[in-house]
Amino acid sequence: MAFLTVAETARRWGVSERTVRGYCSDARIPGAELIGKTWVIPEDAERPARKPRTPAKGRTLLDTLREEKTSGTSGGIYHHIQIELTYNSNHIEGSRLTHEQTRLIFETNTIGIADTIRVDDILETASHFRCVDMIIDNANRHLTERLIKGLHAQLKQGTTDSRKDWFAVGDYKRLPNEVGGRRTAAPEEVAQRMAELIARYEALSRRTFEDVVAFHAEFEAIHPFQDGNGRVGRLIMFKECLRNGIVPFIITDEVKLLYYRGLAQWNQERGYLLDTCRTAQDAFAEVLRYFRIDS
Fold first, then answer.
1. What stretches in the chain show pLDDT beneath 50?
2. Which secondary structure element, helix H or strand E, spans residue 122, and what is its range?
3. Measured on CA atoms in the order 251, 256, 257, 260, is the torsion positive or negative?
Protein backbone atom coordinates (compact mmCIF):
# COMPACT_ATOMS: atom_id res chain seq x y z
CA MET A 1 0.00 0.00 0.00
CA ALA A 2 1.28 3.46 -0.91
CA PHE A 3 1.42 6.14 1.77
CA LEU A 4 1.42 9.93 1.74
CA THR A 5 2.97 12.42 4.13
CA VAL A 6 0.87 14.80 6.22
CA ALA A 7 1.82 17.68 3.90
CA GLU A 8 0.82 15.74 0.78
CA THR A 9 -2.48 14.70 2.33
CA ALA A 10 -3.21 18.26 3.46
CA ARG A 11 -2.71 19.54 -0.08
CA ARG A 12 -4.90 16.79 -1.52
CA TRP A 13 -7.76 17.48 0.91
CA GLY A 14 -7.38 21.27 0.92
CA VAL A 15 -6.87 21.54 4.66
CA SER A 16 -4.00 22.49 6.93
CA GLU A 17 -1.36 20.04 8.09
CA ARG A 18 -2.54 20.57 11.68
CA THR A 19 -6.00 19.32 10.70
CA VAL A 20 -4.53 16.16 9.17
CA ARG A 21 -2.39 15.50 12.25
CA GLY A 22 -5.49 15.99 14.39
CA TYR A 23 -7.39 13.41 12.35
CA CYS A 24 -4.49 10.99 12.84
CA SER A 25 -4.25 11.60 16.58
CA ASP A 26 -8.00 11.06 16.95
CA ALA A 27 -7.77 7.77 15.01
CA ARG A 28 -10.14 9.10 12.36
CA ILE A 29 -8.04 7.95 9.39
CA PRO A 30 -8.04 4.14 9.06
CA GLY A 31 -4.56 2.83 8.37
CA ALA A 32 -2.67 5.97 9.38
CA GLU A 33 0.56 5.08 11.16
CA LEU A 34 2.95 7.01 13.37
CA ILE A 35 6.51 6.21 12.33
CA GLY A 36 8.87 7.82 14.79
CA LYS A 37 7.39 11.29 15.11
CA THR A 38 5.88 11.36 11.62
CA TRP A 39 2.42 10.30 10.49
CA VAL A 40 1.95 8.50 7.18
CA ILE A 41 -1.49 8.20 5.60
CA PRO A 42 -2.76 5.59 3.12
CA GLU A 43 -2.90 7.05 -0.37
CA ASP A 44 -6.53 6.00 -0.80
CA ALA A 45 -7.69 7.39 2.56
CA GLU A 46 -10.72 9.68 2.47
CA ARG A 47 -11.02 12.86 4.48
CA PRO A 48 -13.10 12.25 7.63
CA ALA A 49 -16.45 13.97 7.71
CA ARG A 50 -16.55 16.86 10.14
CA LYS A 51 -18.77 16.26 13.13
CA PRO A 52 -21.64 18.75 13.20
CA ARG A 53 -21.32 21.25 16.00
CA THR A 54 -24.74 22.86 16.43
CA PRO A 55 -26.61 23.60 19.62
CA ALA A 56 -29.29 21.09 20.56
CA LYS A 57 -32.90 22.12 20.27
CA GLY A 58 -34.43 23.55 23.38
CA ARG A 59 -33.04 26.44 25.39
CA THR A 60 -30.58 27.92 22.93
CA LEU A 61 -27.66 30.20 23.55
CA LEU A 62 -29.57 33.03 21.90
CA ASP A 63 -32.56 32.46 24.18
CA THR A 64 -30.28 32.63 27.20
CA LEU A 65 -28.49 35.76 25.98
CA ARG A 66 -31.77 37.57 25.45
CA GLU A 67 -33.13 36.51 28.82
CA GLU A 68 -29.99 37.61 30.67
CA LYS A 69 -29.73 40.86 28.68
CA THR A 70 -33.34 41.76 29.53
CA SER A 71 -33.09 40.78 33.19
CA GLY A 72 -29.65 42.32 33.74
CA THR A 73 -28.27 39.04 35.03
CA SER A 74 -24.76 39.44 36.42
CA GLY A 75 -22.08 36.81 36.04
CA GLY A 76 -23.82 34.74 33.36
CA ILE A 77 -23.01 33.91 29.77
CA TYR A 78 -24.23 37.32 28.52
CA HIS A 79 -21.92 39.04 31.01
CA HIS A 80 -19.05 36.76 29.94
CA ILE A 81 -19.52 37.36 26.20
CA GLN A 82 -19.79 41.13 26.57
CA ILE A 83 -16.46 41.34 28.36
CA GLU A 84 -14.53 38.67 26.46
CA LEU A 85 -15.71 39.60 22.96
CA THR A 86 -15.22 43.31 23.58
CA TYR A 87 -11.84 43.03 25.29
CA ASN A 88 -10.31 40.64 22.76
CA SER A 89 -11.72 42.24 19.62
CA ASN A 90 -10.61 45.72 20.70
CA HIS A 91 -7.24 44.50 21.98
CA ILE A 92 -6.48 42.84 18.65
CA GLU A 93 -6.97 46.25 17.04
CA GLY A 94 -4.62 48.04 19.45
CA SER A 95 -6.74 49.07 22.43
CA ARG A 96 -4.60 49.57 25.54
CA LEU A 97 -7.35 48.86 28.02
CA THR A 98 -6.71 45.85 30.23
CA HIS A 99 -9.16 43.03 30.72
CA GLU A 100 -9.92 44.37 34.20
CA GLN A 101 -10.57 47.88 32.90
CA THR A 102 -12.90 46.48 30.24
CA ARG A 103 -14.77 44.56 32.94
CA LEU A 104 -15.10 47.68 35.11
CA ILE A 105 -16.55 49.72 32.24
CA PHE A 106 -19.19 47.07 31.61
CA GLU A 107 -20.04 46.38 35.24
CA THR A 108 -19.79 49.83 36.83
CA ASN A 109 -19.38 52.34 33.99
CA THR A 110 -16.15 53.43 35.68
CA ILE A 111 -12.50 52.72 35.03
CA GLY A 112 -9.47 52.26 37.26
CA ILE A 113 -6.80 54.49 35.76
CA ALA A 114 -3.15 53.92 36.57
CA ASP A 115 -1.66 54.94 33.23
CA THR A 116 -2.53 57.31 30.43
CA ILE A 117 -5.44 55.87 28.43
CA ARG A 118 -6.78 57.03 25.11
CA VAL A 119 -10.33 58.37 25.33
CA ASP A 120 -11.11 56.54 22.06
CA ASP A 121 -10.29 53.22 23.74
CA ILE A 122 -12.89 53.93 26.42
CA LEU A 123 -15.50 55.17 23.96
CA GLU A 124 -15.04 52.23 21.59
CA THR A 125 -15.22 49.77 24.48
CA ALA A 126 -18.52 51.20 25.69
CA SER A 127 -19.79 51.30 22.10
CA HIS A 128 -18.75 47.71 21.50
CA PHE A 129 -20.93 46.59 24.41
CA ARG A 130 -23.88 48.21 22.60
CA CYS A 131 -22.82 46.52 19.35
CA VAL A 132 -23.01 43.14 21.09
CA ASP A 133 -26.54 44.03 22.17
CA MET A 134 -27.33 44.92 18.54
CA ILE A 135 -26.25 41.52 17.24
CA ILE A 136 -28.24 39.75 19.96
CA ASP A 137 -31.35 41.81 19.19
CA ASN A 138 -30.95 41.25 15.45
CA ALA A 139 -29.53 37.73 15.52
CA ASN A 140 -32.37 36.12 13.57
CA ARG A 141 -32.65 38.86 10.96
CA HIS A 142 -31.15 38.65 7.47
CA LEU A 143 -27.70 40.12 7.08
CA THR A 144 -28.03 43.50 5.37
CA GLU A 145 -25.86 46.48 4.49
CA ARG A 146 -28.02 48.58 6.78
CA LEU A 147 -27.23 46.39 9.78
CA ILE A 148 -23.53 46.23 8.95
CA LYS A 149 -23.32 50.01 8.57
CA GLY A 150 -25.30 50.38 11.79
CA LEU A 151 -22.71 48.36 13.69
CA HIS A 152 -19.96 50.60 12.32
CA ALA A 153 -21.88 53.75 13.22
CA GLN A 154 -22.40 52.49 16.77
CA LEU A 155 -18.76 51.46 17.17
CA LYS A 156 -17.20 54.71 15.91
CA GLN A 157 -19.65 57.34 17.14
CA GLY A 158 -18.06 60.08 19.24
CA THR A 159 -14.50 58.97 18.52
CA THR A 160 -11.68 61.08 17.16
CA ASP A 161 -12.27 59.48 13.76
CA SER A 162 -15.86 60.71 13.72
CA ARG A 163 -14.61 64.31 13.76
CA LYS A 164 -12.47 63.88 10.64
CA ASP A 165 -14.00 65.22 7.44
CA TRP A 166 -12.71 62.30 5.37
CA PHE A 167 -13.88 59.57 7.78
CA ALA A 168 -17.33 58.15 7.07
CA VAL A 169 -18.97 56.89 10.26
CA GLY A 170 -21.58 54.28 9.40
CA ASP A 171 -20.74 54.40 5.71
CA TYR A 172 -18.19 52.92 3.35
CA LYS A 173 -14.66 54.29 3.09
CA ARG A 174 -13.76 57.32 1.01
CA LEU A 175 -10.02 56.72 0.81
CA PRO A 176 -8.05 53.62 -0.23
CA ASN A 177 -6.63 51.56 2.63
CA GLU A 178 -4.50 48.49 3.20
CA VAL A 179 -4.64 45.67 5.72
CA GLY A 180 -1.43 43.91 6.70
CA GLY A 181 0.31 45.50 3.72
CA ARG A 182 -2.27 44.02 1.33
CA ARG A 183 -4.43 46.13 -0.96
CA THR A 184 -8.17 46.11 -0.41
CA ALA A 185 -11.15 47.08 -2.55
CA ALA A 186 -11.02 50.60 -3.97
CA PRO A 187 -13.61 52.96 -2.44
CA GLU A 188 -15.61 53.09 -5.69
CA GLU A 189 -15.81 49.27 -5.76
CA VAL A 190 -16.97 48.72 -2.20
CA ALA A 191 -20.72 49.22 -2.55
CA GLN A 192 -21.04 46.76 -5.43
CA ARG A 193 -18.74 44.15 -3.91
CA MET A 194 -20.53 44.30 -0.56
CA ALA A 195 -23.94 44.01 -2.23
CA GLU A 196 -22.73 40.98 -4.21
CA LEU A 197 -21.14 39.36 -1.15
CA ILE A 198 -24.30 39.73 0.94
CA ALA A 199 -26.54 38.56 -1.92
CA ARG A 200 -24.46 35.39 -2.46
CA TYR A 201 -24.42 34.65 1.24
CA GLU A 202 -28.13 35.24 1.75
CA ALA A 203 -28.95 33.09 -1.28
CA LEU A 204 -27.53 30.00 0.45
CA SER A 205 -30.28 27.61 1.46
CA ARG A 206 -28.30 26.62 4.55
CA ARG A 207 -25.32 28.46 6.05
CA THR A 208 -22.58 26.39 7.65
CA PHE A 209 -19.61 27.23 9.85
CA GLU A 210 -17.43 27.29 6.73
CA ASP A 211 -19.84 29.70 5.00
CA VAL A 212 -19.71 32.12 7.95
CA VAL A 213 -15.90 32.09 7.99
CA ALA A 214 -15.75 32.47 4.21
CA PHE A 215 -18.01 35.54 4.43
CA HIS A 216 -15.70 36.99 7.06
CA ALA A 217 -12.59 36.40 4.95
CA GLU A 218 -14.09 38.17 1.92
CA PHE A 219 -15.49 40.98 4.09
CA GLU A 220 -12.02 41.64 5.51
CA ALA A 221 -10.48 41.46 2.02
CA ILE A 222 -12.92 44.13 0.81
CA HIS A 223 -12.26 46.16 4.00
CA PRO A 224 -15.32 48.33 3.38
CA PHE A 225 -14.79 50.87 6.17
CA GLN A 226 -11.95 53.30 6.81
CA ASP A 227 -11.37 51.71 10.23
CA GLY A 228 -13.20 49.24 12.45
CA ASN A 229 -13.43 46.48 9.84
CA GLY A 230 -12.02 43.74 12.07
CA ARG A 231 -14.35 44.44 14.95
CA VAL A 232 -17.43 44.77 12.75
CA GLY A 233 -16.44 41.62 10.88
CA ARG A 234 -16.04 39.57 14.06
CA LEU A 235 -19.39 40.86 15.37
CA ILE A 236 -21.02 39.70 12.13
CA MET A 237 -19.49 36.23 12.54
CA PHE A 238 -20.86 35.96 16.07
CA LYS A 239 -24.31 37.11 14.93
CA GLU A 240 -24.40 34.66 12.05
CA CYS A 241 -23.41 31.76 14.29
CA LEU A 242 -26.32 32.64 16.59
CA ARG A 243 -28.68 32.96 13.62
CA ASN A 244 -27.71 29.64 12.07
CA GLY A 245 -27.48 27.48 15.17
CA ILE A 246 -23.69 27.24 15.03
CA VAL A 247 -21.56 27.29 18.17
CA PRO A 248 -20.06 30.79 18.05
CA PHE A 249 -16.51 31.73 18.98
CA ILE A 250 -14.31 34.59 20.11
CA ILE A 251 -10.98 35.28 18.42
CA THR A 252 -8.72 36.01 21.38
CA ASP A 253 -5.67 38.22 21.44
CA GLU A 254 -3.54 35.10 21.99
CA VAL A 255 -4.35 33.69 18.54
CA LYS A 256 -4.39 36.95 16.60
CA LEU A 257 -1.23 36.12 14.64
CA LEU A 258 -2.74 32.80 13.51
CA TYR A 259 -5.96 34.65 12.71
CA TYR A 260 -4.10 37.25 10.64
CA ARG A 261 -2.20 34.50 8.83
CA GLY A 262 -5.48 32.76 8.07
CA LEU A 263 -6.96 35.91 6.55
CA ALA A 264 -3.82 36.63 4.55
CA GLN A 265 -3.58 33.07 3.18
CA TRP A 266 -7.31 32.46 2.67
CA ASN A 267 -7.12 32.24 -1.11
CA GLN A 268 -4.14 29.85 -0.97
CA GLU A 269 -4.96 27.73 2.10
CA ARG A 270 -8.36 28.00 3.74
CA GLY A 271 -7.44 25.55 6.45
CA TYR A 272 -5.37 28.08 8.38
CA LEU A 273 -8.30 30.37 9.15
CA LEU A 274 -10.81 27.54 9.51
CA ASP A 275 -8.57 25.75 12.01
CA THR A 276 -8.01 28.91 14.05
CA CYS A 277 -11.75 29.53 14.19
CA ARG A 278 -12.47 25.89 15.06
CA THR A 279 -9.97 26.04 17.92
CA ALA A 280 -11.73 29.19 19.18
CA GLN A 281 -15.05 27.37 18.77
CA ASP A 282 -13.78 24.47 20.90
CA ALA A 283 -12.80 26.93 23.62
CA PHE A 284 -16.23 28.57 23.52
CA ALA A 285 -17.93 25.17 23.70
CA GLU A 286 -16.16 24.71 27.06
CA VAL A 287 -17.64 28.01 28.24
CA LEU A 288 -21.11 26.84 27.22
CA ARG A 289 -20.62 23.61 29.17
CA TYR A 290 -19.59 25.61 32.23
CA PHE A 291 -22.78 27.69 32.03
CA ARG A 292 -24.79 24.49 31.34
CA ILE A 293 -25.98 25.55 27.93
CA ASP A 294 -26.40 22.78 25.38
CA SER A 295 -23.84 22.81 22.59
1. 55-56
2. helix 119-137
3. positive
- At 110 the pLDDT is 80
HEC letters along 255-274: HHHHHHHHHHCCCCCCHHHH
Those residues with Cβ within 8 angstroms of residue 193's Cβ, 6 or more apart along the chain or in another chain? 185, 222, 224
Q: What is the DSSP string of 40-70?
A: EEETTPPPPPPPP--PPSSS-HHHHHHHHHH
* Structure confidence by residue, pLDDT tens digits, 64-79: 999 999 999 999 999 9
* Cα R_g (the chain), whole angstroms: 21
Q: Which residues face 33 on adjacent strands? A: 40
pLDDT at 39: 86
Instruction: Strand 3-5: give its sheet, edge to edge.
Output: 3-5, 38-42, 33-35
> Which DSSP letter does residue 126 get?
H
